[in-house]
Amino acid sequence: MMESLAQLEVLCERLYNSQDSAERAHAENTLKCFSVNADYIPQCQFILDNALTPYALMLASSSLLKQVTEHSLSLQLRLDIRNYLVNYLANRGPELQSFVVGSLIQLLCRITKFGWFDDDKFRDVVKESISFLSQATPEHYAIGLKILNQLVCEMNQPNPGLPSTHHRRVACSFRDLSLFQIFHISITSLHQLKSDVISRLQELALSLSLKCLSFDFVGTSVDESADEFGTVQIPLSWKPVLEDFSTVQIFFDYYTIAKPPISKEALECLVRLASVRRSLFTTDVTRSKYLAHLMTGTKEILRSGTGLGDHDNYHEFCRLLGRFRINYQVLFPCLSDV
């Protein structure tokens, strides 16, 4: 047991910052109790409520993450931690350093995923994120977008200690219940933030769109780091939003107005949109309209050369052209006919 919070803060500072490996090892060994013993969970909350240094907050957050991931905590305890985190992020989040906020959000999303089938309250996280977005401050808006970004990531990635079959059940349920709503939030946010000078919010909204479009919809576990990926198996329920001209257009708009690396993310979204399964469109007319929207914007980039001086943009633009050929059997010269 720590003699004092001040002593703990000194140890945390050493754990995260010391150049002396022996000093770090001693701090790690002393503080290990917080992550391996469930009796220390109340102390983690005490640290979050009272500590003054970000490293102590990181210890509490990372310890709770390990507890939630590796131990079978009671349902009520997990719900209590979850509710505490939502309130904590709402009240303290804007004043915390970003790495602490990121750690707390990861904890919230992990506890959400692991409890997805245990109680419906765990699924309220999307609704609660919307309440962050509706608050007046950019800091709260950013936290809301960060929660949704991390939630999609968490649901899309297998976790050590969670059986792959259970992961897939949760991912499929999340896909069916929440993912489309989150994608819609990302599109709405992009429209709302289009004239915003706070590019960080734009980047978070764009990143959220990309994560939604990159979701493993059918459990194929495609390697997103690979240069090529297969057809994007967008659910049928997404069809009206994709057929809306403004959905495709907003990504071309962001590519035009944003600087790298944000412009590259806009192109990555367009690559995904060009990879959407053709069977999503029930008639040749709707498919042709969708393709025409994509090709018109692509032709304009080709004509103006906007952003193509950036290597990453250029590479992503080539991928976009490649998707026309693969998914729609459209050859590059056809762009001149759009």
Summing up helix and strand content along with how strands pair, one would put the structural category as mainly alpha
Measured distance between first and last alpha carbons: 71 Å
How many strand segments? 0
Share of helix among residues? 55-70%
* Count of alpha/pi helices: 16
Shape: elongated
Return residue spans where pLDDT drops below 50 for at least 5 consecutive residues. Answer: none
Strand content bin: under 5%
Radius of gyration: 22 Å
Would you tell me the overall average pLDDT? Answer: 93
Sheet having the most strands? none
User: How are helices and strands ordered from N to C?
Assistant: HHHHHHHHHHHHHHHH
Characterise this structure:
- By secondary structure, the chain is an all-alpha fold.
- It has a domain at about 225-338.
- It is about 70% helix and about 0% strand.
- It has helices spanning about 5-15, 20-30, 35, 40-50, 55-70, 75-90, 100-115, 125-135, 140-155, 165-190, 200-215, 240-245, 245-255, 260-275, 285-305, 310-330.
- The termini are far apart.
- The mean pLDDT is about 95.
Short note summarizing the structure:
The protein has 338 residues and is mostly helical. 69% of the residues lie in helices and 0% in strands.
Chart the SSEs and their pairings:
Elements: H1 5-17, H2 21-31, H3 33-36, H4 41-50, H5 54-70, H6 75-92, H7 98-114, H8 125-133, H9 138-156, H10 164-192, H11 199-213, H12 239-243, H13 245-257, H14 262-274, H15 284-304, H16 311-328
Helix pairs in contact: 1-2, 1-5, 4-5, 5-7, 6-7, 7-9, 8-9, 9-10, 9-11, 10-11, 11-14, 13-14, 13-15, 14-16
